[in-house]
Amino acid sequence: MSFFGAARAALAVPNSFLRIRVALFVIVFLAGLCLSCGTNSKPPALPNHDAYVTLPAHGSVLQLHIDGATGTMTVGSVTPSTGDTTPTGLALLPSKKFLYAINSFADTISTFSVASDGSLNLTATPTPAHPGANQTIIDPSGQYLLVTNNTSNDVSVYSIDASSGALAEVAGSPFPANNNPSQIVITQNGQFVYVTNPNIGMVTGFSFVGGVLTQVPGSPVFSGAGAISATVDTSGRFLYVTNPSANNLPPYQATIGNISGFNIDQTTGALTPILGSPFTSLNGTVGPTTILADPSGRFIYAIAPGSSYSIWCFTITPENGQLVAATGSPFSLAAGGLFALFDPVGGYLYIGSQTGNGIEGYTYNPSTGVPAVIAGSPFVTGTPPGAMVLSE
């Protein structure tokens, strides 16, 4: 029956008042049905975008194209190979105009401009860095680049010229960050910075104002053996840290490694342990080396290299930050311990692999947290990647 045929049939109802009401109902209902089944019935396709990964062994940065609808990755352009650089850390400006690669062997920072097609071009002579420059982030405002320096045991802060991308170290930088600072994270409001210190199993916290880092009260705090990777939940209230070498008490003594959870004081940035911390899994033969919170703020994932019990998934208790293992966790799926990050455009999870010479890709259920392999994964990068950023 056609749209107008259905309306005419409705008008055949004997009672005139009821006839009009039925006719109006049918017209509105069928109009909605036509809109849902017509040429505009399909939801808009998720946008395609790019990712960038450092290739330490190759001395370059690789561009990857992400299909927004499927999460699959294809290889794009790659920057020229530069010997004796070993790029590790990577950061992309929120404006997507410039990308920064930390050359850990050369103790320099390369600045690349990002073209309209996503390809990279080196803008100038690399900026000198401090000994052991390793990991990096850009603050939410896009004004500062922060870099951990393993050898000199500090954190450098550089102001970013918005038009040229040029870096200039701020007064007072570098700032002491205790022994062997490794990963660095920042709260979404940009007020607090946290650095892991794996050699001493601790976390160093800072307040961050005008490019200046000041250690928060009680810093550093003990986390656990090998404390190496950290993440802040989307609310900015909780910090979680992986301790890959930590031993566990019964009934978890067969599991290697755990996760420390901390409350973040919203005024001072000071850290206090969450009740029940550390959290661990009933199964896990290799301790997790990287951790991240999903964009919805519901889940924490801790990633261990390998394929047995490799992806730990926990739900976050909103009231107190306690972690509760998701049903089926840990998941025995191929994973790596180099990095892990979410692509919020399509709800994808990407994990850097030491052995697969590439990147493992997963979707995940937004209600249960259960991951599932993306078709075509792993995505080959040629040599093991070092760090990855997304241009979503």
Structural category is: mainly beta
Spatial separation of the terminal alpha carbons: 45 Å
Unreliable spans are: 1-44
- Report mean pLDDT, rounded to a whole number: 89
User: How many beta-strand runs?
Assistant: 32
Task: Classify the fold: give the CATH topology of the largest domain.
Answer: Methylamine Dehydrogenase, Chain H
- What's the total helix number? 2
Instruction: Please give the largest β-sheet.
Output: 5 strands, antiparallel
The CATH class name of the largest domain reads: Mainly Beta
- Based on the coordinates given, report the CATH architecture of the largest domain: 7 Propeller
Task: Give the overall silhouette.
Answer: globular
The rounded Rg comes to 25 Å
CATH superfamily of the largest domain: YVTN repeat-like/Quinoprotein amine dehydrogenase
Topology:
Blueprint: H1 3-10, H2 16-37, E1 49-55, E2 60-66, E3 73-78, E4 87-92, E5 98-103, E6 108-114, E7 120-122, E8 127-128, E9 133-138, E10 144-149, E11 154-160, E12 167-169, E13 175-176, E14 184-186, E15 192-197, E16 202-209, E17 212-215, E18 221-222, E19 229-232, E20 238-243, E21 258-264, E22 271-273, E23 290-293, E24 299-303, E25 311-316, E26 323-325, E27 339-343, E28 348-353, E29 358-364, E30 371-373, E31 379-380, E32 388-390
Antiparallel strand pairs: 1-2, 1-32, 2-3, 4-5, 5-6, 6-7, 6-8, 9-10, 10-11, 11-12, 11-13, 14-15, 15-16, 16-17, 16-18, 19-20, 20-21, 21-22, 23-24, 24-25, 25-26, 27-28, 28-29, 29-30, 29-31
Helix pairs in contact: 1-2
Mind explaining what this structure looks like?
This protein has 392 residues and is mainly β. The protein folds into two domains: 35 residues; 342 residues, YVTN repeat-like/Quinoprotein amine dehydrogenase (Methylamine Dehydrogenase, Chain H), CATH 2.130.10.10. It is 8% helix and 40% strand. The chain is built from two helices and 32 strands. Strands 4, 5, 6, 7 and 8 form a five-stranded antiparallel sheet that branches. Strands 9, 10, 11, 12 and 13 form a five-stranded antiparallel sheet that branches. Strands 14, 15, 16, 17 and 18 form a five-stranded antiparallel sheet that branches. Strand 5 and strand 6 form a beta hairpin. It is globular. The N terminus is likely disordered.
